[in-house]
């Protein structure tokens, strides 16, 4: 398994690039964050891509000094390795330190600290010119040839789109829009075309905020047939982006506009229907699970469904931060919460990656779903509107806080904060895509996901809810009657072994459970718990090999005997109203055996 050290967290740069002072290579100091400074570099070597990092050799233009530049974990940009995407970079507030192998390195932990200079990714950042302090080389010396007209940009973007070269298409359309913005006499319709086409590329790249903005900006409002058809297309793209963001009310209005302009458009009709189903799910919690399940497969493991959260609200939970509380009475089996994952990475997908982390803060080694962390960072980088709800989740490190900070090169993401949020809030749904073999997944490629609302669920070993998954839809049901105002809890760790369970809760979730069951088991003392555990293991092993369905009377007597000796380890007063978890397996066996016995009478 890949190893990754989680060093001391440090915040990303939040200063706009133009307000940073250039720094020279010779000014770099070891183990220093050069706050308020920016270093401009040119890549001069191929990129070495490892499982959880990429590195290359760079050169500072004025001094010619070379430096190793390494990007940790978050190194991809629209499917390309960021270091490979261009040759000129600016490192904001460079962090100069030793790599894990002991090489002096400029280390990038936060993607927003590495700015790609003008070129194929199409952002409008130019590196400082050579005349500026620090003497950096002008970006244009290394950038792609400049296209002359917006029309040429559009044609080149269309050609790139045809070849599925999405970052290039995005860059070309962006370039075209920059040219239009500079040219006051430019034809307005070319801007609409560029926005409309870029909306499509943004949709394909899952940049949904931008897809919505482009779709809206592309509307012509002209009432002839040709323009109405173009506007219908724009409404469809905007509606699609809103649908994928889960904004179903907005999506509905947009698809309705599309239908108004193009009444016979089948896409509009189909999407309008789907959106109405989503709105119904969202409002009522009524789902056609059979249909949703039927739509799932290994290649399409994400459910087309809305989230239903009206039975719950987030409130303070004394001693445990925030928690999820019932807004109404619920019966056993009733849906408490049904939530689509904010982000899920399935074990069979290329993105799946579990790494061993060593955290210097608490001197602990843990398995960490690095693939999920990367996917979440990508999603919020691409969709800044989603940042605050993720950053509002519980995590030990606060970093730059939860509020969105937009800078010239995009949103600023504190990846240490995302790391800590994932560490404390991710769940493992198991390989639940329909028909998938359960054995396919192990600890190195476990499926993991983040469910925002469910992240507020606190743990109890005697919880009142149970969860299951339909694809990436988490379905949480009441395990016993829940009253309005009651806190909803579920079990993060279901081990019956008190010592193993409390150790896991401490290591993974960072707290000591004080539920009634833990208090009772703690009061039992080590000797009694050890005795009970030995009896439980003996009984479970016996039940494993004895077939309940074919059990003879003598086996039933033996099982009752085993159950009695386990039961005797529970003190009645202490365990009044609490589950006797060590008895679960043997009692199940007895129920199966005696039911068959009775059925045979
Ligand atoms: C998934 S979050 C649950 C929501 C969290 N309480 C919040 O404020 O957002 C998990 C974290 O909640 C806290 N937590 C959950 N259950 C707890 C419990 N039974 N006792 C104390 N803290 C608990 C721990 O800090 C844990 O790491």
Describe the protein.
- By secondary structure, the protein is of the alpha+beta class.
- Among the domains are: 3-141, Nucleic acid-binding proteins (OB fold (Dihydrolipoamide Acetyltransferase, E2P)); 519-600, no CATH class.
- Helix content is 37%, strand content 18%.
- Strands 2, 3, 4, 5, 6, 7, 10, 11, 12 and 13 form a 10-stranded mixed sheet that branches.
- α4 runs antiparallel to α5 and α16 packs antiparallel against α17 (584-600).
- It is globular and about 95 Å long.
- The model is unreliable at 120-126 and 128-146 (pLDDT under 50).
- S-adenosylmethionine binds next to β15, α12 and β23.
What's a concise summary of this model?
The chain is of the alpha+beta class and 601 residues long. 37% of the residues lie in helices and 18% in strands. It contains 17 helices and 26 strands.
Q: Topology, pairings included?
A:
Elements: E1 3-6, E2 21-22, E3 32-33, E4 37-43, E5 48-49, E6 53-60, E7 66-72, E8 76-77, E9 80-81, H1 82-85, E10 88-92, E11 95-98, E12 104-108, E13 114-116, H2 150-162, H3 166-182, H4 188-204, H5 208-217, H6 225-244, H7 248-261, H8 266-284, H9 289-294, E14 312-316, E15 322-326, E16 335-340, E17 343-345, E18 355-359, E19 364-368, H10 370-382, H11 387-391, E20 406-407, E21 410-411, H12 415-425, E22 448-450, E23 458-459, E24 465-470, E25 473-478, E26 487-490, H13 498-509, H14 516-524, H15 526-545, H16 553-567, H17 584-600
Parallel strand pairs: 1-18, 2-4, 7-12, 23-26
Antiparallel strand pairs: 3-11, 4-6, 4-10, 5-6, 6-7, 8-9, 10-13, 11-12, 14-15, 15-26, 16-25, 17-22, 18-19, 20-21, 24-25
S-adenosylmethionine (SAM) binds at residues 320-323, 394, 424-425, 455-456, 458-460, 509-511, 513.
């Amino acid at each position: 398994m890949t190893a990754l050290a989680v060093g001391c967290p440090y915040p990303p740069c939040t200063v706009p690039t133009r307000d940073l002072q250039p720094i020279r290579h010779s000014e770099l100091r070891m183990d220093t964050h050069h706050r308020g400074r920016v270093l401009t570099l040119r890549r001069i070597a191929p990129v070495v891509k490892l499982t959880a990092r990429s590195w290359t050799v760079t050169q500072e233009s004025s001094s010619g000094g070379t430096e190793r530049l390494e990007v940790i974990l978050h190194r991809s940009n629209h499917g390309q390795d960021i270091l490979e995407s261009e040759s000129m970079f600016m490192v904001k507030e460079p962090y100069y330190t030793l790599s894990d192998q002991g090489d002096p390195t400029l280390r990038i932990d936060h993607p927003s600290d590495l700015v790609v200079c003008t070129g194929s990714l199409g952002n409008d950042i130019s590196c400082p010119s050579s005349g500026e302090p620090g003497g950096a080389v002008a970006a244009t010396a290394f950038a792609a040839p400049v296209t002359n007209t917006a029309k040429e940009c559009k044609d080149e973007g269309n050609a790139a789109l045809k070849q599925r070269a999405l970052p290039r298409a995005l860059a070309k359309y962006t370039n075209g829009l920059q040219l239009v913005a500079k040219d006051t006499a430019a034809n307005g319709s070319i801007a609409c075309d560029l926005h409309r086409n870029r909306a499509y590329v943004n949709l394909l790249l899952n940049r949904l905020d931008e897809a919505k903005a482009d779709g809206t900006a592309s509307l012509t409002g002209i009432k002839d047939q040709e323009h109405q058809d173009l506007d219908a297309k724009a409404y469809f793209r905007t509606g699609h982006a809103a649908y994928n963001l889960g904004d179903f009310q907005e999506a509905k209005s947009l698809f309705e506009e599309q239908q108004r302009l193009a009444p016979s458009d089948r896409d509009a009709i189909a999407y309008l229907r789907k959106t109405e189903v989503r709105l119904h799910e969202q409002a009522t919690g009524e789902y056609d699970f059979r249909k949703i399940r039927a739509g799932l497969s290994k290649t399409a493991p994400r459910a087309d469904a809305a989230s239903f959260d009206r039975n719950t609200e987030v409130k303070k939970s004394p001693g445990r931060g925030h928690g999820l509380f019932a807004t109404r009475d619920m019966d056993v089996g009733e849906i408490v919460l049904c939530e689509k994952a904010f982000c899920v990475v399935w074990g069979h997908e290329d993105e799946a990656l579990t790494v061993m982390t060593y955290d210097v803060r608490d001197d602990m080694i843990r398995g960490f779903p690095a693939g999920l962390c990367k996917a979440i960072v990508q999603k919020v980088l691409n969709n800044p509107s989603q940042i605050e709800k993720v950053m509002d989740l519980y995590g030990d490190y606060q970093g730059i806080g939860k509020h969105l900070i937009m800078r010239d090169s995009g949103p600023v993401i504190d990846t240490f904060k995302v790391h800590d949020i994932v560490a404390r809030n991710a769940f493992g749904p198991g390989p639940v895509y329909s028909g998938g073999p359960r054995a396919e997944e192990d600890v190195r490629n476990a499926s993991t996901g983040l469910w925002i609302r469910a992240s507020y669920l606190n743990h109890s070993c005697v919880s009142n809810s149970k969860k299951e998954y339909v694809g990436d839809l988490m379905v949480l049901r009441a395990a016993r009657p829940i009253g309005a105002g009651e806190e909803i809890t579920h079990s993060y760790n279901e081990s019956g072994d008190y010592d193993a369970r409390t150790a896991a809760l401490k290591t993974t979730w960072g707290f000591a459970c004080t539920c009634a069951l833990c208090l009772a088991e703690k009061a039992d003392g080590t000797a009694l718990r050890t005795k009970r555990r030995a009896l439980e293991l003996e009984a479970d092993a016996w039940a494993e090999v004895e077939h309940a369905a074919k059990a003879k009377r003598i086996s039933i007597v033996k099982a009752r005997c085993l159950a009695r000796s386990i039961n005797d380890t529970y003190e009645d007063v202490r365990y009044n109203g609490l589950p006797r978890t060590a008895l679960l397996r043997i009692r199940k066996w007895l129920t199966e055996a005696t039911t068959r016995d009775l059925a045979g009478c």
